[in-house]
Each structure stands twice: as C-alpha cells, then as structure tokens.
Specification:
alpha+beta, six-stranded antiparallel sheet, two-stranded antiparallel sheet, 12 helices, binds adenosine-5'-diphosphate
C-alpha cells in the first residue's frame, strides 16, 4: 500500500527523477503501437509486425519478440531511436552493414531493417533461450561434451566471418544467443571490423581499442607496438571456453587494470576438481592455453576443431543438447 510507505525525501525524489531521465535518455521508450507497420518507403509490401514480450535491453537498443502478420513468423525486433549520439550512430551503422551480409547457421540471421515512428527496427532471427552467459551462470558451468558442442559451433562461425574478412572483436558469452534448439548464434556486430587487404594481401591492422575487458586480447592493449588482427577472436574463444567450464572468465578481477595485467602475464588457474565439482581434461586445458598464446601462435578455427579435445572426446547431438540443457537442475535458482 503506497500510502503507508514512508514519504521519500526531496533529495531522494530528485535523484529518482534524474535516474529516470538518464534511463529514458539511454534507452528508447518501448514502442507505443501494438502493431508496427514499416513505412511504405522502406518496404512496399506493407508488412505488419505484432510486438510481443520484452527480450532485453542493451547499451543502446531494446529488443522485443515480434510476429509478422499474417504468416505468424517470429522474429526478434531490435529497436533503436533514429536520432542518437554520433558514437552510437557509428556503432549502429557498422552493425547494420556487417551483420546484414552474414549468413551462417551459428550467426543470428539478419532479415531486414526499417524505420517507423522515429525508430529503426532490425528484424533478426529470434533466439528465445537467452544468452550463453545466462545458461552457464544458471548451470554453474557446463560439462565437457556441452563445451565441445558450443566451441565447435562458435569456431565454425568464426571461420565463416574471418573468411569474409570480418573480425568480430567483441565475442563474449553475453553476445552469443541460444535459438529454440539451444544452438549458439553469434549476435551484436557493433564492434566488428572489415579488414581491408592490400595488394600484397598484408592485413592492414586496426588499432582501435575495443571489446570487453575480460575478453580483450593483450595485443590490443599494446599501443604503438602493433595492431590486432583476426586472432583476437580466437583469444576471446579461449576465454569463452574457460568460462563455459568454470562459469567465470580466467582473468576476472575487481579492476580493469588488474584484468589486463593478468591477461598479459597469462596469470590464471583452473579450479581444482573439489572446488569445481567436475572433471576438466588435460586436453581441454591444453587447447585453451594455445588459444591464449601470442597472436601468431594461436590455432585457427580448423586447427581448433582438429585438436584432441574434440577428436578423442564425446560430442553430443543437438537433440541431446536440446533436451538436457532445457532442464534446470533443482539446486539452481
Ligand atoms: P546492444 O547492441 O544495445 O548491446 P543487444 O544486441 O545486446 O543490444 O540486445 C539487447 C538484448 O536484447 C540482449 O541482451 C538480449 O537479451 C536481447 N536480444 C538481442 N538479440 C536477440 C535475438 N536475436 N533474440 C533474442 N533476444 C535478443
């Protein structure tokens, strides 16, 4: 009952109002119409989407499930305000340009973009089972066969992107979504880069600082020394594999500087079997170690999937993954 609640002080009320204003500024408001009709200039077929439940909010986008009428085909509708600060605008344009050219079974499929009531809508493949991060946290780490299943899928997507000259640069568990069959789908191409290759096919290295502290390869931090190339995605996959096993990234620390120091010095430890309550094979540890080597020593996606971790171990089928991973163990929250 609101009346019995203590009255907030003026300062508190002001702070709450400021917080709300900041939040409103950060995220576009939920779209008011139940049904979104792409404007005729964007698509002459008069497609109409029925907006469903909220899927999540990101740094600058808000995502709803949506159904295309009358086919009832389901999508994820990612919505951003058409007018946004220039830095975000740049990230969004990169995302549009690169994501729309990707077509792979382990990459969130991009269907179309259109504008409606001052917002830009992206119709994306719907991944109704959250992100790999949600699942790994819920399960407190995955088993070896499950890690094999996801590492193979992500390696395949990386091979495809690199083959097209695209470096993702922000691979992390929170950017890998799960489709209705629990397959991994790489999403969020906001930091991706197209590598321009010169006549001598030498990669023109990019020197921008990007990525998320826990997943950033050390060579990206070495200013002035050399840039970074596609091997940064292999480093991130190494971090993802470690985190899939243990449910936290290897260099996790309270400060960003400490994360970077530990990454530079490869200062990480696998938890003991007593602590983690699970078996992690030497093959798995060896593979992760090679992915966290200096860039020129890291395996490419083909070499990764030929590693004994995959070739000598059991690989589950998607059916087993679907039925098993949907179950939430009783001790989980
Ligand atoms: P941003 O680019 O602003 O970081 P994201 O791409 O991370 O936005 O999307 C924000 C949230 O929306 C995600 O954390 C996730 O919960 C949800 N989401 C994004 N894409 C999909 C998708 N294809 N299917 C289901 N949910 C999605």
């Amino acid at each position: 009952n609101a009346q019995r609640m203590p009255k907030p002080t003026e300062a508190k009320a002001k702070a709450a109002a400021q917080l709300k204003a900041a939040k409103d500024k950060e995220h576009p408001p939920p779209p008011p119409p139940e049904v979104v009709e792409p404007s005729s200039t964007d698509r002459p077929d008069g497609a109409v989407y029925h907006i469903g439940k909220l899927l999540g909010k990101g740094g600058f986008a808000i995502c709803y499930s949506g159904q295309l009428l009358p086919s009832k085909q389901k999508f994820a509708l990612k919505i951003v305000k058409s007018q946004m600060p220039s830095k975000m605008e740049q990230k969004f344009q990169t995302e549009l340009q690169i994501h729309s050219k990707m077509r792979h079974r382990n990459i969130v499929q991009f269907f179309r973009a259109f504008s409606y009531v001052n917002c830009t809508f992206l119709a994306l493949e719907l991944c109704p089972n959250g992100s790999l991060m949600d699942m790994v946290k819920r399960r407190k780490g995955l088993t070896e066969p499950e890690v094999r299943f996801y590492a193979v899928q992500i390696s395949g997507a990386i091979k495809y992107m690199h083959g097209k000259g695209i470096i993702h640069r922000d691979l992390k568990m929170g950017n890998i979504f799960l489709d209705h069959q629990m397959n991994a789908k790489i999403g969020d191409f906001g930091l991706a880069a197209l590598v321009v290759t010169g006549r001598d096919m030498q990669t023109i290295r990019r020197t921008t600082l990007c990525g998320t502290p826990n997943y950033i390869a050390p060579e990206i931090l070495e200013k002035g020394k050399k840039g970074h190339d596609h091997m940064v995605d292999i480093w991130s996959l190494g971090i993802i594999m470690f985190a899939m096993f243990t449910s936290k990234p290897p260099f996790q620390s309270s400060t960003t500087d400490e994360i970077y120091r530990r990454a530079r010095e490869r200062d990480y430890e696998w938890p003991s079997a007593e602590v983690s309550q699970k078996y992690i094979s030497q093959e798995a540890k060896d593979l992760v170690a090679t992915m966290l080597e200096d860039a020129d020593q890291r395996p490419d996606p083909d070499a990764i999937v030929q590693h004994p971790f995959f070739t000598t171990g059991y690989m589950p089928s998607s059916v087993e993954i679907t039925s098993k991973l949907r179950e939430i163990p009783p001790e989980a929250d």
